[in-house]
Amino acid sequence: MDIEELRRRKALQNRALKRRRERRIRIFSYIGIAVIALVFGIVLGVQIAKEKKGGKTEQVFAEISTKRVEEAPEFMVQLLTPNPYSRPQTALAKINGIVIHYTANPGTSAQQNRDYFEGLKDSKATSVSSHFVVGIQGEIIQCIPSSEIAYASNERNEDTLSIEVCHPDDTGKFTKESYDALVHLTAWLCGKFDLAVGNVIRHYDVKGKPCPLYYVEHKEAWDQFLLDVENYIEKYGVETEE
To answer: In terms of C-beta density within 10 A (0-12 exposed, 13-18 middle, 19 or more buried), how is residue 144 classed?
Structure first.
């Protein structure tokens, strides 16, 4: 075999090798594009699913609704005796939000928690209270007037209303009855004090305390609660005049 034939065969081999490399590059490029498209599709699908489920963004929750829930939930008014430990009678200059808590006393009732706050005037064991307590059966007791501060939310005592919610066990998850009552109470208070649903927060959001426990450990449950409040306002609220 002469030198020219060797060169010709070598050139053919090189061209064949080059074509195989180019084909592999095209295949990998197609695979890469397909993977990117798949990931994008999954992300988009998740977002669409959230929207179909009724999910709202924090930006939407930050908007004050044009509707107000005028019908208050049924609640008992059992105001605490004025005292330095649970009802200092310090004026609330402005209400900028609502803080949700859990009692951290599994199985106790709204009445028991209210009476504990009342007893602090005598025991002087600590300083704690709440504007409202929601019970396991959905009963609601108001302990502090909405014009006064309660000892519940650290530095946010000065500009928020507080709601303590009872729960049956250590998970801190609310019963359906207490959950439904809380949704109604929160929706009504948002309208009464011209608050957006985004102004409803957990004690955790103030101080990093795991309270309300279940709704700190399950962020999706908290998001659903805010959505339920928003939907309650939309369903049962009435348009207000500008």
So the answer is: buried
